[in-house]
């Protein structure tokens, strides 16, 4: 839904023009998975899929929320009543942002919100971060809070961690808030320092496909928390603040100090994955052939599948089929246990490759995957 339609929806719903309209995108992560809660490196880029919100300021301590995508009516909440982990619906994301802003001392006094999103939900493409960031940006403008993108991202992460109750890292919110069109975002999640890396795949005859398996395995939430706890255990055993502090050159020595095989695997994934992000950045910045990125993506998938163990049969099927049909590289993207994979391919191979993946899914008795091309798009912004 475009900005104009969301504006019109707001007028029909609340009987007045909104103060403005904002948009925030979903993301795919090119490389750097499960590194963001280890203070490591990530490299996402924004999708053209966006959450759009029309918003007006209120001064009476009331927050009204409505989604054009759901048939659930207007939720009316009192700001003073917002309580972490009390809401299990979609409204927890925008309400959590208001809660986090107020908790941090920002003078937010209420709002009317009407929104709609084209970011597929449950696909590992950060539909929840898009919802959080679009509301945060709108409130930042309307209440003249003067916060920068990375600061909004931190507050949105707090909303998700504490208010929603999901122990995610900082990648998704920062990607949605800070990405730029035509670029991937090289982000150091320790201090949120960032570098925009130009990524024009079409200029080299390449495409990046997103394959949404349309599968979400039910245990994904708990498994994410377990991996995170395992990484923290590894860091503690090795006497570092975070696994980011283990240099790639010191990996073997670090592994030799660990008895627990489970922890060893987690550590090996995180340390090698940080190295793969640095490798991809170096390849892209060297101005050489981007095709060289392909094998690094594929190595990342093997590590997520075998060491970190967050893949699933459907994601492996996408990766294996794509590679067997000429893909330059492929990997799962996002948290795993379902969701989406990315495939780097020659433009000329895209049709055959897509067909092969669709046929493999059909042969396995799976629902057809959703395949689309991902072009690095703009981050959060005001659109009306
Ligand atoms: C999810 C989380 C992110 C990150 C990825 C894995 O998308 O929201 O913070 O941890 O998983 O890289």
Task: Provide a descriptive summary of the structure in words.
The chain has 384 residues and is an alpha+beta fold. It has two domains: 3-196 and 378-382, Ribosomal Protein S5, domain 2 (2-Layer Sandwich); 201-373, GHMP kinase, C-terminal domain (Alpha-Beta Plaits), CATH 3.30.70.890. Helices cover 41% and strands 22% of the residues. It contains eleven helices and 13 strands. The protein has helices at residues 3-14, 92-103, 127-142, 149-164, 171-178, 220-238, 251-256, 261-285, 293-308, 313-324, 350-363, and strands at 20-29, 41-42, 44-57, 62-67, 75-78, 111-117, 183-188, 193-198, 206-216, 329-333, 338-346, 370-373, 381-382. The protein has a six-stranded mixed β-sheet with strand order 5-4-6-3-1-13, sandwiched between helices. It has a four-stranded antiparallel β-sheet with strand order 10-11-9-12. A hairpin with a 4-residue loop joins β10 and β11 (338-346). α8 runs antiparallel to α9. The radius of gyration is 21 Å and the shape is globular. It starts with a helix and ends with a strand. The mean pLDDT is 97. Residues 33-34, 36-37, 168-169, 171-172, 334-335 line the site of alpha-D-galactopyranose.
């Amino acid at each position: 839904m475009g900005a104009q339609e969301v504006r019109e929806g707001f007028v029909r719903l609340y009987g007045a023009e909104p103060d403005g309209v904002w948009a925030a995108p979903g993301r795919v992560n090119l490389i750097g998975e499960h590194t963001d809660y280890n203070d490591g490196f990530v490299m996402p880029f924004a999708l053209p899929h966006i959450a759009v919100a029309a918003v007006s300021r209120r001064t009476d301590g009331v927050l009204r929320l409505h989604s054009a995508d759901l048939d659930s009516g207007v939720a009316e909440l009192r700001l003073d009543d917002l309580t972490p982990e009390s809401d299990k619906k979609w409204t927890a994301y925008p309400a959590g942002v208001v809660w986090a802003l107020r908790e941090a001392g920002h003078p937010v006094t209420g709002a009317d919100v009407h929104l709609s999103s084209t970011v597929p939900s449950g696909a590992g493409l950060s539909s929840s971060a898009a919802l959080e960031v679009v509301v945060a940006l709108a409130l930042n403008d309307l209440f003249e809070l003067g916060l920068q993108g990375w600061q909004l991202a931190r507050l949105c992460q707090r909303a998700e961690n504490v208010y929603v109750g999901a122990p995610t890292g900082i990648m998704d919110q920062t990607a949605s808030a800070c990405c730029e069109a035509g670029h991937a975002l090289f982000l150091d999640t320790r201090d949120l320092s960032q570098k925009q890396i130009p990524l024009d795949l079409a200029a080299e005859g390449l495409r990046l496909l997103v394959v949404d398996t349309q599968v979400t395995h039910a245990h994904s939430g708990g498994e994410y928390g377990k991996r995170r706890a395992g990484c923290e255990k590894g860091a503690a055993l090795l006497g570092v603040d975070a696994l980011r502090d283990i240099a790639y050159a010191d990996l073997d020595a670090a592994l030799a100090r660990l008895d627990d095989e489970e922890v060893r695997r987690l550590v090996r994934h995180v340390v090698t994955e940080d190295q793969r992000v640095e490798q991809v950045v170096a390849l892209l910045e060297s101005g050489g052939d981007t095709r060289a990125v392909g094998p690094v993506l594929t190595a990342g998938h093997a590590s997520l599948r075998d060491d970190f163990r967050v893949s699933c049969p459907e994601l492996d099927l996408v990766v294996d089929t794509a590679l067997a049909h000429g893909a330059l590289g492929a990997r799962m993207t996002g948290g795993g246990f379902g969701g989406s994979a990315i495939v780097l391919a020659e433009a000329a191979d895209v049709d055959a490759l897509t067909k092969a993946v669709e046929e493999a899914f059909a042969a396995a008795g799976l629902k057809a995957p959703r395949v689309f091309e991902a072009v690095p798009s703009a981050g959060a912004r005001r659109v009306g």
